[in-house]
Structure formats: structure tokens, C-alpha cells
RNA sequence: GGGAGGAUACCGAAGCGGUCAAACGGGACUGACUGUAAAUCAGUUGGCUAUGCCUUCACAGGUUCGAAUCCUGUUCCUCCCA
């Protein structure tokens, strides 16, 4: 099956500038393709994953992926899909972000293979040195403002008189177009992929390449990932789900996937995993037949955690999840318990703090980070959502002492059904 | 430059002298039901040493027994005219 068919089966093709020609071109041999990632934070998040994984899919099919860290474009800010002007990042932040994002990109693509190694580029390298006058003459001249204004990203903001769009963001598409043109010229990059909101930026690049190089390059957009319940994909109570384990722990990352809505799980298996069609079809059948078995969810969570954090970390996260959600703590041993220490948020306190009269339970929940304030903890307790060592607490006056320590040193806190934390006495 | 209107909790939006920690909606959290799902129903949604106390309605003052509500000034936003 060709790569395009594969992507289509997975529901990953939103739009293509010329499916027929691209199919033909891909059939003729390896192609270089790129996708840009703007360093808006010091880590990528699951929302960035679809295009990144798509790059890898192309690489697996023998093509040459170029991951572009947007040192230049990130300095400007892409108006696509944004309803308001953003603040510019400082240069230092940008530098840090790029460095961090580069590392993450490097993990998902194969840079070692000799046949078609991936490449990691930064568009600041070829943009920073271009003077404003040169840019206006060499790039700007090829675009009419009329066509720029017609782009959805710009039009949306022009129609909204309350927010408007700065000249800076308005120019964003030219920079991205310049990237594509530059990559075509220097790396013979013939395809750009990106989220569906990138359509306008991609076609701008295609036009520039045609005008300046008289050559045809292609664009392919991937769908915007939507949750069945209408919320934004990749967001949780705590915010975005990041790839950086320092921001989103491996356990939380695993949990994020395991809690996927039933209606989304098969779609996500197709979007995000490299599992073969047959396997996904199997999982779909198993899920339809016995949803409470949650086999598809587990497969998804394992595949994703594996991909981002590696096998060892996945096993730990999985083990911790099994212990916590596998039916009570009764009879578990110390070594088993230790599996969850450090996986779920773990806070250390001085043993002396809970000796004698001990600490108020509400305070402990605030310390653990599960509750925002004493008042909130009290409300949660009144609602029946506060558990210590998996026992529901109903008295706000309760004080926790060394008596309650599991194995002489840990306390297992739970708020609600699935928010765990461990407190360890030093 | 002239004129009009506005700024309320996470968001949207009521309130226009006391009964306002502030209606209602969304979101979020918790409980029940379940499968760590969805849907549904219920509770909660400023802080606290908690049948009470404290700090909030852009900011700073003032009037009043009493202000989110009235007055003055400041900042920001929107609209209309030039």
C-alpha cells in the first residue's frame, strides 16, 4: 500500500494540492518533505504530534523528512487559527525553546539511518541574514496584497474589528513561503505537510517556488484533531499534555491516553500509532464487542507512551496504573507500592511534621498539590472526594500521624476518582 | 480634536443605595451510576483558625448609618463625528 493510501486509511489526509501528481511523484522514488514546528514553548505537546508522526511515516516509507524548527517564523507568530495577536517571545526564550524542541524532534525521527536520514533545520539560519530590502524585492514582489488578504487566517482577523492583525503577523506567510522555496532550492524538498490551518501558508510557498524556480512542489494537510465531546484535543484540566516528562509526567501522559473517549479511541489509534492496519482492525472489533475491556485504550496508551518515553518508562507507568486502578491496595507489598512512588506526583515531608499530633488532613492535600487551598480541600472532603490510603475521609478535623504511614513512610492520597499523590515522610 | 458608552468572579452576562460573596449560562471540580468511557442526575465553584470572620465588582479618593450600585479623578477598551 502506498504511503498516501495508508495516510488516507488513517484519516490523515485533509487536503492535497494535487493528489494525482503527488501520487505519481511518490511512486517514482524518495522525496524530501518538510514540516515546520514553531517554538512557542520549550516543549512540544500532543497537539504537535500528528504532523510529526506523519513525517516519520514518510520516513518509514523511504522518504527524507526535514523537521524545521521555526527560529525565524516563531519570532513573528503565525496568525493561522489564532483569534488574537500574540505577544512576541523574547529572543532568549526563543533560543531556549528551539533547543528544547529540537531535542524532542530528534527523538521521533531517525537521524542515524544511512538510506534516508532525517534532517533538522532552523529557518533562522537562512532568514536572519536576509535584509529587509532584499526580502521585499525577492519575496514580497511575488505576492499581491490582494491574495494575502484573501487567506483565511488574515481575513478572519480583518473582519474582526476588535482584534485586527499586526503587519508583523500579516507577513508571516511570506516567511513560511520563503522557507519552502529555500528548502526546494537547497534540499530539493518537494512536499510540505502541516495541519489544516497551514493550507494558506503552504500554498503561498508553492506559489513562490513556481514563480521563482518555475517548479512544482506539493502541499498536504492533515486534519485538525477533534474530541468527540467537542473539546480541544490535547487539553486536560491541568492544561496541555506535553511531551517533556518534566512538564507532564510519564504516568500522566499514559493516563491521558488511557482515558480517551470511547468514540475517539479507534480514530486515535489510526492517527497516532504505527500499529498496522490489521492490528487496529482487531482492536476496533474487540472494542466494539467488549468496550469495558478497554483493550484499544490500553494499546493506544502503551503505543504512545512507548513512542515518546520509551519502553522502560511505559512499563513503570503501566504498572503504577494497574496498581492504582486495578482494584484496591489490599494486600499489596512494599515493593509493589514503591512502583507508584515517583510515578504519581510525590511530595516529601519531614517525618517530624506528622509525629505526635500530626498534620490536619486538609493541609496534607494542599501540600500534595491535589487541592488548591484548604477551603477547596474542605469542600472536596464534604463532597466525599478525599481519600487517604484509599479510605474515604469524612471528618475535616482528622489529623494524620505516623500511624497512617504505609510501610512506615508513605501516605497515598486520592482526590476524586483518579487523582493520586503520594506523600513520603523522610 | 469633539461626543457617547463600557470595565463585575475562570469565561460570558445580570445587578444600578441596604435582604450581594454577588442572579443566570458555560466551563471546572466532587458525588451517584459505570468500564479510569459517554450520557444522565445531584452538590460545589473568593479566602479562613468556619452556623462566624476577612478580602473582592478596573484603580485612587469621596458622599452615606450603609456602595458593585451615587460623586470626583486616573487608566484601559469600544462606538460615533472630524
Which percent bin holds the helix content?
A: 40-55%
Shape: elongated
How far is it from the N-terminal to the C-terminal residue, by CA?
58 Å
Q: How are the strands ordered across the major sheet?
A: 1-6-5-2-3-4
Number of helices: 21
Give a quick summary of the entry:
The chain is α/β, with parallel strands linked by helices. The protein has helices spanning 3-9, 19-28, 49-60, 73-76, 91-108, 124-127, 132-138, 145-150, 152-159, 167-170, 172-187, 199-213, 250-258, 262-272, 277-289, 295-309, 311-325, 334-340, 351-354, 361-367, 374-382, and strands spanning 15-16, 32-37, 64-69, 119-122, 189-195, 218-222, 235-236, 239-240, 346-349, 359-360, 386-388, 391-392, 399-400, 410-415, 419-425. The longest helix is centred in the first third of the chain and has 18 residues, at 91-108.
Any overview of this molecule?
This protein folds into 3 domains: 220 residues, 3-Layer(aba) Sandwich (Rossmann fold), CATH 3.40.50; 92 residues, Tyrosyl-Transfer RNA Synthetase (Orthogonal Bundle), CATH 1.10.240; 82 residues, RNA-binding S4 domain (Structural Genomics Hypothetical 15.5 Kd Protein In mrcA-pckA Intergenic Region, Chain A, Roll). Strands 1-6-5-2-3-4 form a 6-stranded mixed sheet, sandwiched between helices. Strands 9-15-14-11-12 form a 5-stranded mixed sheet. A two-stranded antiparallel ribbon has the order 7-8. It is built from 21 helices and 15 strands. By secondary structure, the chain is α/β, with parallel strands linked by helices. The longest helix has 18 residues. The protein binds one RNA strand of 82 nucleotides through helix 14, helix 17 and helix 21.
Amino acid at each position: 500500500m502506498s504511503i498516501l493510501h495508508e495516510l488516507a486509511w488513517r484519516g490523515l489526509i485533509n487536503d492535497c494540492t494535487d493528489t494525482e501528481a503527488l501520487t505519481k511523484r511518490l511512486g517514482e522514488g524518495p522525496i524530501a518533505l518538510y514540516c515546520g514546528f514553531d517554538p512557542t514553548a520549550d516543549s512540544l505537546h500532543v497537539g504537535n504530534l500528528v504532523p510529526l508522526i506523519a513525517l516519520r511515516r514518510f520516513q518509514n516509507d523511504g522518504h527524507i523528512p526535514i523537521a524545521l524548527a521555526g527560529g525565524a517564523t516563531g519570532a513573528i507568530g503565525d496568525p493561522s487559527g489564532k483569534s488574537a495577536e500574540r505577544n512576541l517571545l523574547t529572543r532568549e526564550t526563543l533560543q531556549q525553546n528551539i533547543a528544547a524542541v529540537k531535542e524532542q524532534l530528534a527523538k521521533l525521527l531517525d537521524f542515524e539511518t544511512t538510506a534516508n536520514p532525517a534532517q533538522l533545520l532552523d529557518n533562522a539560519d537562512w532568514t536572519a541574514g536576509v535584509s529587509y530590502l532584499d526580502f521585499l524585492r525577492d519575496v514580497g514582489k511575488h505576492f499581491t496584497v490582494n491574495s494575502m488578504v484573501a487567506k483565511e487566517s488574515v481575513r478572519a482577523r480583518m473582519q474582526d474589528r476588535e482584534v485586527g492583525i499586526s503587519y508583523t503577523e500579516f507577513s508571516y506567510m511570506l516567511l513560511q513561503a520563503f522557507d519552502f522555496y529555500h528548502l526546494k532550492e537547497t534540499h530539493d524538498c518537494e512536499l510540505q505537510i502541516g495541519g489544516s490551518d497551514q493550507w494558506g501558508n503552504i500554498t503561498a510557498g508553492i506559489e513562490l517556488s513556481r514563480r521563482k524556480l518555475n517548479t512544482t512542489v506539493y502541499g498536504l494537510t492533515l486534519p485538525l484533531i477533534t474530541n468527540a465531546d467537542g473539546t480541544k484535543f490535547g487539553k486536560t484540566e491541568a492544561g496541555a499534555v506535553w511531551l517533556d516528562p518534566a512538564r507532564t509526567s510519564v504516568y500522566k501522559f499514559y493516563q491521558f491516553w488511557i482515558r480517551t473517549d470511547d468514540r475517539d479511541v479507534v480514530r486515535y489509534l489510526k492517527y497516532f500509532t504505527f500499529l498496522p492496519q490489521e492490528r487496529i482492525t482487531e482492536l476496533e472489533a474487540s472494542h466494539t464487542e467488549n468496550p469495558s475491556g478497554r483493550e484499544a485504550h490500553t494499546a493506544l496508551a502503551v503505543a504512545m507512551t512507548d513512542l515518546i518515553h520509551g519502553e522502560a518508562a511505559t512499563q513503570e507507568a503501566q504498572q503504577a496504573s494497574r496498581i492504582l486502578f486495578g482494584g484496591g491496595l489490599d494486600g499489596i507489598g512494599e515493593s509493589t507500592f514503591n512502583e507508584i512512588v515517583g510515578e504519581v506526583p510525590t511530595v516529601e515531608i519531614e517525618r517530624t511534621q506528622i509525629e505526635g499530633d500530626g498534620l490536619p488532613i486538609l493541609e496534607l492535600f494542599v501540600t500534595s498539590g491535589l487541592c488548591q487551598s484548604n477551603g477547596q480541600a474542605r469542600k472536596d472532603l464534604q463532597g466525599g472526594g478525599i481519600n487517604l490510603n484509599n479510605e474515604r475521609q469524612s471528618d475535616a478535623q482528622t489529623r494524620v500521624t505516623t500511624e497512617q504511614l504505609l510501610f512506615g513512610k508513605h501516605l497515598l492520597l486520592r482526590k476524586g476518582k483518579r487523582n493520586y499523590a503520594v506523600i513520603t515522610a523522610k
